[in-house]
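so my prof wants the structure for this chain in the tokens format not the other one, which i didnt know existed until like an hour ago. anyway here's the sequence
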Amino acid sequence: MESKNYLNNGVFSVTLYGMELNFSKVSGLNQSVEYDSYPEGGGGIVIMPKPSSSAGTVTFEKGITSPKWAASACFSLGVKLKDITITLIKNGIPAERYSIDSGIVTAWEVGELNALGGGVLIKKFTVAHTGIRIS
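here's what i got, hopefully its the right format
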């Protein structure tokens, strides 16, 4: 397969409550299932998924552009979020979507403050969720 057919990991958008928000990085888009296996009559093995016992987490990172964004109540600890969508875009067209119905902000972190540096100040938000749908 030619490389032009692959999606670029740097072209995406994040939508929350119908508003498009800009983030420089999103990580933790993964999901797994725990399972039980047990013998079945006749010698076969049956594998059955278990109910989820823990939440997954997604981390959003953004360069802080203004004090207003830094104090955004939308990403305060304990705030419940609904309808989060991360859309991968190829040639200006949505190619794949990751949807989170609901989550809660469990952590935030501001990057290192360094008077000798000239880098962009990054703020990270961690959101716990109960599942991601791919469409």
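also thought this was worth mentioning. The chain has one helix and ten strands.
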